[in-house]
Amino acid sequence: MTRKSLSVAVVACALAIGACGSDSSNTGQTAPPPPGNGADRAYVNAMLPLHEKAVAVAFIAQTRGNKFVKSISRQIAGEQPPETARLRAIGDALFSAGVPVGTLGVAPSTAAADADLGALRRSKSFNQDFLKAMIPIHEATIALSNAEIAKGDQVDLKTTAQAIIDAEKPQLASMKKRLNS
Known about the structure:
mainly alpha
């Protein structure tokens, strides 16, 4: 097997693995989509830490939160690990295909770094602090997903980005409403 055919096989396998887990993001394609562009790589690189932090915050909330916070955290803990696996697989395929990291034109988010898990675990006003940690993460992922749809080339990433927007916009609205009430 030549180096080029091995690279193509790796990309195809990674995309196939990335497509597992949810029928809602299956594009119905029979051949792997084109590798993508630098915006696609930038999207994956920016989204992974946000998703990982959101899941970590959600796991804490499942034992500490009120009914509303527990409900939102269960949604996040259920949705984001499959999305993270898909993002990671597509990102690996883009890397293997030699796609360079570009830009999305969105300011880098500090939301993942700003969510202090230790402080959240010790919080005396956990429900409010959960919302204050999760709202910026959701705002960042929605902004990044909109930029991916506008600038990316990778079909599966665009589909995933739209699914993220569709899932997180209502969560964001309800969290903001709860925080401001």
